[in-house]
Amino acid sequence: MATLEDLGVSAFINIVGAFAFLILFAVLRIQPINDRVYFPKWYITGGRNSPRVRGRGVGKFVNLNLRTYFTFLNWMPGALRMSESEIIQHAGLDSAVYLRIYILGLKIFVPITVLALLVLIPVNVSGGTFLNLNKKIMYSDIDKLSISNVNARSQRFFIHLLMAYLFTIWTCYILYKEYDNVAFMRLHFLASQNRRVDQFTVVVRNVPHVSGHSISESVEQFFHRNHPDHYLGHQAVYNANKFAKLVRQKERLQNWLDYNQLKFERRPEKRPTTKRGFLGLCGERVDAINYYRERISELDEKIAYERQRILKDPKTIMPVAFVTFDSRWGAAVCAQTQQSKNPTKWLTDWAPEPRDVYWENLPIPFVSLSIRRLIISIAVFALVFFYMIPIAFVQSLANLDGLEKVAPFLRPVIEIKVIKSFLQGFLPGLALKVFLYILPTVLMIMSKVEGYLSLSSLERKAAAKYYYFMLVNVFLGSIITGTAFEQLYSFIHQPPTQIPITIGVSIPMKATFFMTYIMVDGWAGIASEILRLKPLVIYHLKNLFIVKTERDREKAMDPGSIDLPENLPSLQLYFLLGLVYAVVTPVLLPFILVFFAFAFLVYRHQIINVYNQEYESAGAFWPHVHGRIIASLLIAQLLLLGLLSTKKAANSTPLLIILPILTIWFHKYCKSRFEPAFRKYPLEEAMEKDIMEKASEPNLNLKAYLADAYLHPIFHSFNDDEEEKIEVRVDKGQSHIPSPTRSEISSESPPHYVYHYEFEP
């Protein structure tokens, strides 16, 4: 069990580590050669096209201004300088709402910490339980500050009961205010935008096959018949795997052509050459520029042929389409109602924002979705219990005293003072962090298999799985296995009737383990986030071996984004720990406060200077944040109820039963009051927005505006000089939409499906 000395060792290691990360970050960020690693957001938005600090010669790579090295903390005021409205404009509402979670943590826990330390610590210290307790039960000086040190049947428990009520009331009040604020921010954000294509578009899945009709014809007939006044057109989905392969080949060849042209411009006296054979290593040596131009020309012909084949072959059409309407009201009616007597056919929902679409999952049939989700649910359940093994191992490291009693042969090694302090104070938190490292990636893959249509939905589902995992394994698992290891001797040698009492005393003792975890994950871990060591190394490796053109350098930046599948559950774990231990072991709360304050600064800096969000969901994840904090409140109340029952506090315990009931009622009220703003689009607001838009822009050509809104990135793959066009049918004759003009395709964009537009004649 970790003692004060062990916690001191852990705090020293993590504080020194965090400080070292910050100093290293301060040095690396001002080097011109690293500018694209630590400020990629400004390059993407056009706010910067070269390092601000740049000299000649060596000064192009290394900052020679010594004065800048002494201002290594100036990033902190810089992170606070930008207002919330400016952050929304700069990085989007999702980023601003994510930062509000840290503000929420500070609002909740600052008053709770002050009150708990001033009131509960003196009450717990003067309890004196451990003076009369069985000597075989392990405890430390920190445990004397917890509720475990209060004698059974003590009237002091009424003070803990009062604090539980005050903490719950304060938390619910802050949650209500924040839910209200975020809902207002979301509605204001949506209303302030003139036109969002997803407000006019519905995605329809499981389109039934009708004999003699193509999928596209079935969609047109169905919506023309059932939504005759507002149906504008639809965008059919085609399977285009071979097409995507050709486009990627062209992109690689175009990159080599650009590289050789730049090389020739620098040395015009010598034309670059290459070999025709494998990877340019063998075969006849030829002029590189002419060679790559010929190869690209050949691929252009193949791409044009393949695209025409896709558009003409009815077998390539998938049973899904994006349906557009001439008004928000028409789209809202379609998206929020059942379209067919058969509830498994013509499934409609709001189309995600174009950047938010996860293309691979579009054509998955309804039956397959149900089977996939059942299988993944079973797999997640199995994974949770599989991870109990490493969690138990971590707890064995945290409870060496208990192991010594059962395995005395380990005592000579464990009793070495430095080793023991390291094992109990630092290693358990680090080991748990390592075991959790790959889990978010695994859970994201599972969520993709389940078949959700948008990246935001995938991240929220992955975050939900990770939260349940953290709740069961990291929190409950650590308490249960940790208690077993700590009191292993007592469990074996005491009567069964005494075991519940021992557990009731032991649960607060796990606060020491969670303190070490917070220091590793929430202090040193957050400092390592701002250092960006992995992206730094990868960027310079790419720069050394892969980058040939400016386009390559832009791709090598890899700004990343807020990792919601990992960050949201981790945040919710900190809320859970704070709310559970606020009454039980208040000394943990300052560790939570340091995390929220430090993480707020770091992520504000990263959002301003680094992250580039893949999509904008307008804060759609907030209901999940609110719901899980409510769940944390309920868990804290139930654990306190169980703990007081083991303390035989018969007078005070019944008064706690009403608290979970009031909390559930509060959650249901907030759910009915605010959640519709995150799930549905009010018809009243849709109609008002349509009327205002028609009054301000009476001649708006909505078809032209929506025509390529959901164009898959694969169509962004043709040169400016190409004459090929995508033909579509529109009202009053024929028209043409020019092909997109970019000559590249993002390697991150799924290549499986493309879209063809067929508006009603």
Automatic annotation (TrEMBL):
Family as reported in the entry's similarity comment: Belongs to the CSC1 (TC 1.A.17) family.
Polar residues composition bias: residue spans: 736-749
Q: Which residues form the CSC1/OSCA1-like N-terminal transmembrane domain?
A: 7-178
Specify the signal sequence span.
none
Q: Which UniProt keywords apply?
A: Ion channel, Ion transport, Membrane, Transmembrane, Transmembrane helix, Transport
According to UniProt, the name of this protein is CSC1/OSCA1-like 7TM region domain-containing protein
The subcellular localization recorded is: Membrane
